[in-house]
Design brief:
alpha+beta; Aspartate Aminotransferase, domain 1; 2 domains; 4-stranded antiparallel β-sheet; two-stranded antiparallel sheet; 5 helices
């Protein structure tokens, strides 16, 4: 029967099978620009698992946060957050020092939005070039930034959240962006 669900329960585990794919997707779907697919890269097409569960759709994060804080302590998380913010400032400084890179938004906490800009005046070409840079970075395995739009312009979006990242990782990332941008610019 359409719309019916089957629930299988064994002790504490619950499995829900949903027949209506569109109803399931519609219940959890959100579409911020930083989660959009580019058609290539790390997640070129569905299924988009983020759209199939409650993690990004509903505020169920509190339980996971509570367990993590109880297990690791607020002091440790505070140090890791401070470390990520410092790493973001470092990445921002690398971008500011290079005339071919352009910050597109203020760097407040752990997110950097920027683009490669060899001083082209055509915004649509810059957008296409930076989308291609993003995809090639993802395909190379060097890093997995996302893309977004800032004031209508395409931006490479780096959210620093990995406590194992090092300054060398950020230098590698910026150098890779510069090389890809230079290669793409010379082929125009």
């Amino acid at each position: 029967m359409p719309g019916k669900r089957i629930v299988v329960s064994h002790r504490r585990s619950i499995c829900v099978l949903v027949r209506d794919r569109e109803a399931h997707r519609g219940a959890f779907q959100i579409a911020p620009s930083y989660l959009s697919s580019q058609g290539r890269g790390v997640a070129p097409r569905g299924p988009e698992f983020a759209a199939l569960g409650i993690d990004l759709a509903r505020n169920f994060k509190a339980l996971k946060v509570w367990f993590s804080l109880k297990t690791h302590s607020t002091l440790k998380y505070g140090r890791l957050i401070e470390q990520n913010i410092e790493q973001t400032r470092y990445l921002s400084s690398l971008i500011k020092r290079n005339p071919r890179l352009q910050l597109l938004a203020p760097v407040e906490l752990n997110v950097v939005c920027f683009r490669y800009n060899p001083r082209l005046s055509d915004e649509s070409n810059l957008d296409r070039m930076n989308e291609e840079i993003l995809i090639r970075i993802q395909e190379s395995g060097v890093a997995v930034p996302s893309g977004t739009r800032v004031s209508g312009r395409f931006a490479i979006r780096v959210a620093v959240t990995n406590h194992r990242s090092t300054r060398a990782d950020f230098r590698l990332f910026v150098n890779h962006v510069l090389k890809l941008g230079s290669d793409l610019h010379s082929s125009l």
